[in-house]
Amino acid sequence: MKKVYLGMTIMLLLCLSLSSSAQQSVTADSNVVVPPLVKFGGTLTDGSGKALSGLVGVTFSLYKDEQGGAPLWIETQNVTADRLGHYSVLLGSATSTGLPTDLFASGEARWLGVQVAGEEEQPRTMLVAVPYAMKAGDAQTLGGLQASAFAMAGASAGSVGSVKGAVANSAAAKAAGISSATTGTGVADFIPLWTSTTNQGDSIIFQSGTEIGINTKTPGATLGVNGTGSFTTATGAQALSVTQSASKGNGIVATTSGVGGTAISGTSSSTTSSFGNGIGVFGSSSNPIGYGVEGSSGNVGVAGNGFTIGGTTGTGVQGTGGQYGVYGEIASSLFPATQAGVYGTTASASATAYGVEGVATSSTGNAVGVYGTSSAPKGYGVEGVSSNVGLFGQGNYGVDAHGSGIAVKGTASVSGAYSGWFQGGPVLITGNANNMVMGDPGCGAGYGGLSFNTGTSMDCTNYTLLGQSNGATYINAAGTAYIHFRSNNNELAHIDNAGNMDIVGINGGGNLTVTGRVTSGNVIAAVTASNTVGASTCTGVLTASNTACAVPNMTLTKTTADPTVLVMVNIGGVVTDACATANFYLVVDGAIKALSTMSLNTNNSAGGYEIGNLNIMSLLDLSAGSHTFQVQQATDETNASCNAFTLQTTVSQGDGGRGSQRSLVVREF
Questions:
Q1: Helix ranges restricted to H, 93-156
Q2: If 0-12 CB within 10 Å is exposed, 13-18 middle and 19+ buried, where does residue 213 land?
Q3: CB-facing half-sphere around the CA of 472: CA atoms within 13 A
Q4: H/E element holding 352?
Q5: Mean pLDDT, to the nearest integer, of 261-268?
């Protein structure tokens, strides 16, 4: 059966008049001088500590003993509890006769049991002091009879009046604090309790020197209480105010050893927004090294729960201090496996719900929103775990992390997730006298860039790599620096600020190979022709320039300014005898620079001759000035396998798809 805990604050007193809240009207007895009702109050909570409110059926029983035995008296009432579980009833109001006066006539202890409907009865509470004053009703009688019953037969009315006067005088003496017949025994150091009008007994208040204990003989402080307490005020003053002025003292020290117990629980039940903000527990310290709230526990030092009511913001734990607002520290232990100095969690689906939020509002200095440090080699200064954003920071430094291993570590455990996400501005990574900046390159919308520079930003001139939203990619060297291409940190090629490309190669030299056509706007001279040219009169192999062997329309003179010159020659429609080799020479300034030959030894035409194309390409270093470029040709007829020649060499012999164009092109680099 579920337990319902009743935190009871007992206020027992004799009612001087009948309460309008009683369930039945108690019939007045002319012989009863004390109303037979007892006021009783308490708090109703369920097993989880939640207050029971509204109309609740409760049975009240009086017993002779603390445990066991049949009830001496029993009564059931419908109790109305407020939203905090507080209630108040008049015991005896359920019947017209009220509480039987003889329940307290013997002076023996009486135990009150309280049971919520459908639940088991709670541990009994001993009634003390005031309820036994019901015995005082006999003070107006002698053995339960009126004083007039003892008047002698025939006695005058004045005699009876003198007896009444004696009783009245005795009551007046007691009212004046005069008693000549005080009886009873007591225990030393207990504050006495009047158990009747003339008899004293022991209360539950104990005094030892300057220390007072309630329900305890070992208070251990100026005031020690063994039991529960309740402080209620309807004014603006504090219900409980504690001041500690001694050095290194504690205002409040709360300890709980019960399973699931809470040392201090602070609840603000106000649902109205006000200047006071409705804070469950508020702690502040003006001491430079003081703590607003300090909690120490084997599990959770300080637990705060803040709930949003009416659109206001509820704060679980708020700390204000000259050094740390909230400071959390844990001792090394093996249990539990996961420990946290400060742990924050939120179950809210709101976009602004944070487990732990750190905000630095100072506009000067080095204000930090959340600061974390770890001395462990594999520890984390700040660790954030989330299915969305692991760590989120705002402030002058949103996140400032220092670690001997890794300052910030981001791990995406789900496919397609991000291990880090930066937005709203460039990302700056400082290097060894050089920085890396990633993000907006300052080139307008649709660009993202990466820059290596000594500054902290990009301005669309100092980027290193630039990407455009349409897929275009740009490589840039700031200023007049070269763009270098390397392998294993060995220079392969570089391009200078003027656009010159130097192919170096790992071994000190490299080749430029172009598959397909080479086109450029740096052609400084070109000559073309397509007319058929007859056989050259030159034969054999040329070892030097011979202008008599020049191919017609294949000579040009041009002034160059750059030392690097590319010369390209194409000869189409070359016809040669099957037994001859056609040699074509590139001659620059009277010196042979390149050679290309065509030797066709199989007939591919009915006439027994061959038709084909050949190319010459040469990259030259020439001094600035005027240069003459020329193509010369000679036919080598030394092929020993042939006995006769049927045709000498010709060029630009058009034959349809085989071509007849010839060209000489000069380019500068």
A1: none
A2: buried
A3: 5
A4: none
A5: 70
The CA distance from 470 to 420, in Å, is 24
Rounded to 5°, angle at Cα 168 from 166 and 174: 105
Taking the C-alpha atoms of 35, 38, 39 and 44 in order, what is their torsion angle to the nearest 10 degrees? -150
- The dihedrals phi and psi of 170, each to the nearest 5 degrees, come to -65, -45
In one letter, which amino acid is 481? Answer: A
- Length of the chain in residues, anyone? 669
Distance between CA atoms of 488 and 560, rounded to whole angstroms? 37
Q: Do the bridges between strand 501-503 and strand 125-127 make them parallel or antiparallel, or are there none, so unpaired?
A: unpaired
Q: What is the mean pLDDT of residues 71-86?
A: 87
Q: Is the pLDDT of residue 27 over 60?
A: no
H/E stretch holding 170 reads helix 157-175
3-state secondary structure of 578: coil
Nearest to 609 by CA among 569, 580, 641: 580
Helix, strand, coil shares, percent, the chain, to 5: 5, 30, 60
Reply yes or no on whether the pLDDT at 622 is more than 80: yes
Candidates 138, 23, 20, 42; CA nearest to 92 is 23
- CB of 615 within 8 A of CB of 556? no
Give me the residue label for tokens 């299915």: 387
Identity at 620, one-letter amino acid code: L
Distance separating alpha carbons of residues 583 and 585, to the nearest angstrom? 7
Residue of 619, 599, 617 whose CA lies nearest to 663:
617
Q: What strand order describes the sheet that includes 625-636?
A: 550-560, 625-636, 581-588, 591-599
pLDDT confidence bin for 276, thresholds 50/70/90: low
Strand blocks (E) in 195-271: 200-208, 211-214, 223-225
Sign of the dihedral defined by the CA atoms of residues 66, 69, 74, 77, in that order: positive
The two structure tokens encoding residue 363: 């506009």
| Mean pLDDT score, 289-295 | 71
Best CA proximity match to 582, nearest among 651, 649, 659, 663: 649
- SS3 for 548? helix
In angstroms, the CA 590 to CA 555 distance is: 12
Lowest-pLDDT range of 17-31, 84-98, 175-189, 630-644:
17-31
Measured distance CA(145)–CA(137) in Å, rounded: 11
Confidence at residue 18, expressed as pLDDT on a 0 to 100 scale: 31
Position with higher pLDDT, 465 vs 164: 465
- Residue pair 475/491 in contact (Cβ under 8 Å)? The answer is no
The 10s digit of each residue's pLDDT in 558-598 is: 999 878 899 999 988 887 776 778 899 999 999 999 999 88
Report residue 388 as tokens.
């969305």
Rounded CA gap, 321 and 254, in Å?
A: 21
Q: Per-residue pLDDT for 326 more than 90?
A: no
Non-local CB neighbours of 316 within 8 Å, separated by 6+ positions: 303, 304, 305, 306
Distance (Å, whole) CA 596 – CA 589: 18
Average pLDDT of 643-649? 60
Q: Is the pLDDT of residue 26 over 60?
A: no
Coil/strand/helix, residue 387 = coil
Cα angle: 497, vertex 500, 505; to 5 degrees = 115
